[in-house]
Task: inverse folding
């Protein structure tokens, strides 16, 4: 049950992202008269009030109607409460309670004040110093997290031109990943495979662009972080993971056939404990592992006679079926 609840909270986190709750524009128009307009396209107080009320109501709906029943089960069973997915929603519910009770300096009000007051008071001409923001986001809720992200984005924008260019490189790749790749298998949970898979053409286009624009990006992020500690760990983790993905697909892409081909070395052990314990396994003549037009043949007689493992290479292309066949004796006692 705990695993199911954590999966549901993961889906709920994705809804917060999909609905872009309290998220600035993907590409803020920093030349606008103030940063409230630049980041949220908010023109006046009335529009700001409508926007923030709408965001708070949606977050409240997710928290009270979806998260709260799940968290109550975990609290009653005293399990899984330390998981980060649980912690952020527990903190969000607590902050919403403080907001509804009108407690001063609650995270919902602090986030609203950031958008309507602080961001509305600054622009490129008077980029804030680090002390402009209070930097207290201790609650760990979605409201505190969004406030921290907004303040961090403003701080990064107001830094040097080189740093802004670095942030722009990362932001471009992250936004393109979120819009075109994220949530589509194989960049999704395994149980979503077959529902909305990422097609080969779209993946190739994304990886080609990523490969060109991510050159030395991880090293540059690390270098900047060593200077001022301003680069979020999640940024570096994302680029590290994407570099691994990029290297893997670059090595397996066949330009001539315009497809990925993964070369696997498959080892078959007929002397393994599991196979030995299987009744009738000694009456199998051969095993055949097939992928697309390639196959690997494992003869039981060779393994049983000489007592060694057989290893064969096989090619696997994305979209191919992997099939395993067992050929039995014509007459067998099992």
Result:
């Amino acid at each position: 049950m705990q695993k199911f609840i954590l999966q549901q909270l993961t889906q709920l986190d994705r809804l917060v992202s999909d609905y872009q709750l309290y998220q600035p524009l993907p590409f803020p128009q920093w030349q606008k008269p103030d940063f409230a307009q630049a980041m949220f396209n908010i023109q006046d107080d009335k529009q700001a009030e409508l926007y923030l009320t709408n965001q708070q109501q949606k977050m409240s709906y997710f928290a009270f109607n979806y998260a709260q029943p799940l968290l109550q089960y975990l609290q009653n069973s005293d399990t899984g409460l330390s998981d980060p997915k649980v912690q952020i929603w527990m903190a969000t519910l607590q902050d919403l309670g403080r907001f509804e009770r009108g407690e001063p300096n609650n995270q919902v009000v602090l986030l609203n004040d950031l958008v309507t007051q602080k961001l509305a008071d600054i622009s490129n001409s008077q980029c804030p110093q680090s002390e402009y923001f209070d930097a207290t986001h201790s609650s760990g809720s979605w409201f505190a997290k969004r406030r921290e992200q907004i303040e961090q984005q403003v701080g990064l924008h107001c830094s040097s031109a080189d740093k802004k260019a670095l942030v722009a490189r990362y932001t471009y790749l992250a936004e393109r990943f979120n819009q075109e790749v994220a949530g589509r298998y194989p960049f999704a949970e395994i149980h979503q495979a077959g529902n909305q898979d990422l097609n080969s053409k779209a993946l190739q286009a994304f990886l080609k662009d990523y490969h060109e624009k991510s050159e030395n990006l991880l090293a540059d992020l690390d270098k900047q972080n060593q200077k001022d500690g301003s680069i979020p760990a999640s940024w570096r983790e994302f680029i590290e993971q994407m570099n691994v993905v990029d290297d893997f697909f670059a090595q397996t892409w066949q330009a001539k056939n315009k497809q990925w081909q993964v070369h696997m070395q498959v080892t078959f052990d007929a002397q393994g404990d599991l196979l030995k314990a299987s009744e009738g396994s000694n009456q199998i003549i051969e095993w055949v592992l097939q992928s697309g037009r390639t196959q690997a043949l494992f003869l039981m007689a060779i393994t049983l006679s000489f007592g060694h493992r057989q290893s064969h290479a096989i090619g696997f292309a994305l979209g191919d079926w992997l099939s395993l066949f067992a050929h039995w004796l014509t007459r067998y006692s099992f």
Q: What stands out?
A: The CA atoms of residues 206 and 286 lie 42 Å apart.
